[in-house]
């Protein structure tokens, strides 16, 4: 598990290898990740968008941006957390992801970025 705290918001990430899939005569590798967002600040915050950089070891980085996380824009009061699961497909058994969340402090209406720690994606059979 990797963790990072930005402005009182703690992000924790766990990854899993989900298996391989054959699509259009190509092998793809499925990875899952679980993210916990914990509000350790004194303010109420809301996550309203996210930005990901997905690196596949055999190709370039793909950028993915959008509103919320898995269709939600969670509001976190001090001490609360939100956990969700998602995943990605890679064309190689190795990769990495990093990014950030856009959040708003609901106490003062100021927006800020919360960094997501960089984490590795690797299929167990491909590790020496």
Automatic annotation (TrEMBL):
Pfam families found in the cross-reference section: DUF525 (PF04379)
Domain ApaG residue range list: 3-128
Transmembrane segments: none
Gene3D superfamilies listed in its UniProt record: ApaG domain
Domain of life: Bacteria
Protein name: Co2+/Mg2+ efflux protein ApaG
UniProt source species: Formosa sediminum
Gene: apaG
């Amino acid at each position: 598990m990797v963790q990072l705290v930005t402005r009182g918001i703690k992000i924790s990430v766990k990854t899993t290898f989900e298996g391989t899939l054959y699509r259009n005569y190509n092998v793809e590798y499925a990875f899952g990740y679980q993210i916990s967002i914990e509000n350790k600040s004194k303010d109420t915050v809301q996550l309203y968008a996210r930005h990901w950089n997905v690196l596949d070891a055999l190709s370039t980085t793909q950028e993915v941006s959008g509103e919320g996380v898995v269709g939600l824009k969670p509001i976190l009061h001090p001490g609360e957390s939100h956990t969700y699961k998602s995943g990605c497909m890679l064309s190689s058994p190795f990769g990495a992801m990093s990014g950030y969340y856009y959040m708003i402090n609901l106490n003062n209406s100021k927006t800020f970025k919360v960094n997501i720690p960089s984490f590795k994606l690797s299929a167990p059979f491909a590790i020496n």
